[in-house]
Write a structure and sequence with these properties.
5 helices, globular
Length: 121
C-alpha cells in the first residue's frame, strides 16, 4: 500500500484515478491545484506523487522543481499525467528524474499497473 498525492484539477479524472487506486489498497490524498499539492507535501509523507502538469496557481513544472530542490524527500517518485504536449516536456522529465508519465485520457488499468511498480511491499 502506498500513500499517494494525486495533484489533479479535473474532478472527474481525480475521482476515476482515486477509485482505481483505492481498489488496489492505496491511500489517496487529492490536491486540486499546485498550491494545495505543495502544502500537502510540506505537511505529510507520501510514497508517490501523481501530478497533472497543468494545474492552477502553481503548475506541474514548478511542483517538480520544488520537490527536486528539497521541499520534501528529493527522490520521491513522480508520475506525470497530462493531456497537453507530453513530448515538449520529455527533456525536463529526464533532467528531473520523472521516469513515468501517462497522456490523458489514460486507462485506469494502465495507471494502476504503473503505480504497482512503485509498491515494494
Amino acid at each position: 500500500m502506498l500513500h499517494i498525492l494525486l495533484a489533479e484539477d479535473d474532478a472527474n479524472h481525480a475521482t476515476l484515478a482515486r477509485q482505481a487506486l483505492e481498489g488496489d489498497g492505496h491511500l489517496i490524498t487529492i490536491a486540486p491545484d499546485g498550491r494545495a499539492a505543495l502544502a500537502a507535501l510540506a505537511g505529510q509523507a507520501f510514497d508517490l506523487i501523481l501530478l497533472d502538469m497543468r494545474l492552477p496557481d502553481v503548475d506541474g513544472r514548478e511542483v517538480i522543481d520544488r520537490v527536486r530542490s528539497g521541499l520534501v524527500r528529493r527522490d520521491i517518485p513522480i508520475v506525470v499525467l497530462t493531456g497537453y504536449g507530453l513530448r515538449q516536456h520529455l527533456d525536463f522529465f529526464s533532467r528531473h528524474g520523472v521516469r513515468d508519465y501517462l497522456a490523458k485520457p489514460y486507462d485506469c488499468d494502465e495507471l494502476a499497473t504503473i503505480v504497482r511498480a512503485y509498491d515494494h511491499n
